[in-house]
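Lab manual, section 2.4: Encoding a predicted structure.

Procedure: take the sequence of the chain (475 residues), apply the prediction step described in section 2.3, and record the output as structure tokens. A sample record is shown.
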Amino acid sequence: MPLKKKNNRIENRLRIILSAAILLLIILSIVSYRSLNSFKVKSAWVAHTSEVLFNVQRLLVELKDAENNHRAYLVSEDETFRRPYINSKIGVMEYYNESQELTRDNSKQQKRFKQLLTLIDKWYALVEDIHIAKEDSILNKAMIKTSLKREIDVMENIQSIISLIEETEENLLKKRNNDVDIALEENYLIISIFAALTLIIILLAYLHFIRDIQLRSALEDQLQESIHRLSQTNQELEQFAYVASHDLQEPLRKVISFSDIILRKHAEQLDEKGRTYFDRMINSTERMQTLIQDLLNFSRSTRNIGDRKSIKINNLINEVLEDLSESIHEAKGKVKLKLTTETTINGTPVQLRQLVQNIISNGIKYRKKDTNPVLKIKTKIIPAVKLEQKIPLLVSEEFIEITINDNGIGFDEQYLDKIFTIFQRLHGRSEYSGTGIGLAISKRVVENHNGYITAKSEVGKGSTFFIYLPVETKA
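Recorded output:
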């Protein structure tokens, strides 16, 4: 399996595990949050019921205290017992109002509280009548006995209703305490599940991390092996290039040389047809020489041959134009330059010279009939961020853009990728000479220098090639 696919599988598996872990944690967090809220609500209801019970019990205590003070006053006629009795109603009503407010959600309890209020008012009214009769000195034993009996009956009814209220609240408290216990157990269970799953996720992540390291180590070993094999292949290619440049070309040179001797010294022995055959043979042999030389150049372009050094791009362009001056003059061509301030790049001089020469040569070669070639060459600096989608590795913050425009025959842009492929030609050999390797070499040279090359064109309206190369970083 290719290394890239293996790396993608590892990354995809890691994304799936992390996504599942995050999703699981989110779900558990939501469940835990809801469970805690439920626990809080149920705990609040327990506190609410407990408060009702407390207030009702305090209400009964206040009533009992009032009853004791009332009877002590009747026996002793001491006003110190009457004052607490009088003040007791404030406390009784305070506890009553709080209890009645707390049970607004319970209609049965509300009915009982209404009955309770009626009985409390009745009890205080009975007691007050006894106190008034005593003050008016019209109270006798028979009246006291009758009043006390009525008073006791009312108090018993009060206690009975309070008991019903307390019983209801105690049942509610028991149920709500049970709900709280269940909610607490649920919280413990959720926390336990949460902790267990967290540990499992951590363990799985750890195991996956270890496996990932092992896989990456294996991939690195495979990569090193591939690099080693590639190095061996490059050495074999270099050996082939040497053979192509020397051993294969030597026989061709002899064919051309002997053919030329025959044509010069024995031309009179050949008829017109024979001389034509010899001319065609020499032309074919020369094309073979050119093809072998171009293959050699392409082989060299796949590697960074030679030492890299600082190169002033303006000087390089001018030197190439000087080398091609004869070809430009013969084609009656013109070159218009618009170069930016001197810019330095780091690269291999031989390869970069060949790159620029190939593009300019094409501009001269692929000219329209009866039209003198005009080339416009300009350079400018652009920020690297503009090339993020084009170049995988941005080795500099700035790039130089070299634009080479011609007024030649142009090409259909649907063949843009094709023109940078080795042996791909858009025109027949009878129309324009060449082997279809020049632009493939140019692309390899640009890639060797961490750059990018592309083109725009329209049939009959010329072509524009764009070359991007990283500007040398100042130390």
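Check your result against the sample. The chain has a mean pLDDT of 79.
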